[in-house]
Amino acid sequence: MHAITVTEHGGPEVMTWEKVPDPTPGPGEVIVEVAAAGVNRADLLQREGNYPPPPGASEILGLECSGTIVSAGAALPLDRIGEKVCCLLSGGGYATKAAVPVGQLMTVPDGVSVVDAGGIAEVACTVWSNLDMVANLSEGEWLLIHGGGSGIGTMAIQIGRALGARVAVTAGSQDKLDRCAALGAEVLINYREQDFVEVMKDVTGGRGANVILDNMGAAYLERNVDALARDGRLVIIGMQGGIKAELNIASLLRKNASVHATSLRGRPDSEKAAICAQVERTVWPWISAGIVTPVIDRVIPMSQAAEAHQLLADGGATGKVILRP
């Protein structure tokens, strides 16, 4: 098969498209012929040497893919060979074939092409697991999403609205804010020009956000806590703004607030399988009904993965960037 390999840690130029051995399925895995793979910020971190794959996972980049089951072995009934699926991975998506644990296979939602499906598994599972399973976002609550124009952000806006929340977002351009508004965000904050803490307190009558979904980490930690309402929940899913910051614990105590930091990739397969099952049962019907729509910025040939990585690094995409072999 062919795959993107990383010759050494560094910039996008270290990635090459070359022939490599086919994946060998482990116990409980199947082989999927890849139709498309989504690009995620975590891929950029891994390429740079800052986010190594979990023990036993493929060294090939790629946390999600879509395609066709071509080999089932003893892990799956043979009648599923030929089925179109989208998949959550710990690695291996930037390739023409991928080994996938059975529990991380999901059907392609009705109305979604198999190529577009390459960019929905990671964002849907990340958003659902954090907003519902961790933060317990409830109807009528305020949700603040940092990076509203990202793949995660565009999905989180729609799932937040589907759960009955009121949604605020931050983004760095008017174009991205306009796209967020079209998806259902009602408070639009340009982080280059506005203080999101002040905006959230203003629109909520001084209370603040009930849930904050944060991709920045250290840079926003203190301000995020300041922006939380009483009993608020801050969920950190990224570290674009660094990994170390000081936190005034008294601020949390006064608000009876909580901080959660989660990683989908590092969870045990059993937990990821449970998340996939919930997403397929809850989010996929929303997609099929048009309540939630995957936002795809563009599809790029997999051999040009460096272009896709640079696009994400520059903040030039709204929604998902997808690689197609």
Name the helix and strand elements from N-terminus to C-terminus, one letter apiece: EEEHEEEEHEHEHEHEHEHEHEHE
- Please give the largest β-sheet: 7 strands, mixed
User: Quick one: overall form?
Assistant: globular
Q: How many domains?
A: 2
Uncertain runs: none
Reading off the top of the CATH hierarchy, the class of the largest domain is best stated as Alpha Beta
Average pLDDT reading: 96
Short description:
With 325 residues, the protein is an alpha/beta fold. The chain is built from nine helices and 15 strands.
Structure report:
Helix content is 29%, strand content 26%. By secondary structure, the chain is an alpha/beta fold. The protein folds into two domains: 2-120 and 265-324, Alpha-Beta Complex (Quinone Oxidoreductase, Chain A, domain 1), CATH 3.90.180; 124-261, 3-Layer(aba) Sandwich (Rossmann fold). The strands form three sheets. Strands 3, 4, 5, 6, 7, 14 and 15 form a seven-stranded mixed β-sheet that branches. Strands 10-9-8-11-12-13 form a six-stranded parallel β-sheet, with helices on both faces. Strand 11, helix 6 (221-227) and strand 12 form a beta-alpha-beta unit. Helix 2 packs across helix 8. The chain is globular and about 55 Å long. The N and C termini lie close together (11 Å). The model has no long low-confidence stretch (mean pLDDT 96).
Lay out the secondary structure.
Blueprint (H helix, E strand, L loop, with lengths): L1 E5 L8 E5 L9 E10 L2 H8 L15 E8 L12 E5 L8 E5 L3 E3 L13 H14 L7 E4 L5 H12 L3 E6 L2 H10 L3 E4 L5 H8 L5 E6 L6 H7 E9 L12 H7 L2 E4 L7 H20 L7 E6 L3 H9 L6 E5 L1
Parallel strand pairs: 8-9, 8-11, 9-10, 11-12, 12-13, 14-15
Antiparallel strand pairs: 1-2, 3-4, 3-6, 3-15, 4-5, 5-7
Helix pairs in contact: 2-3, 2-8, 5-6
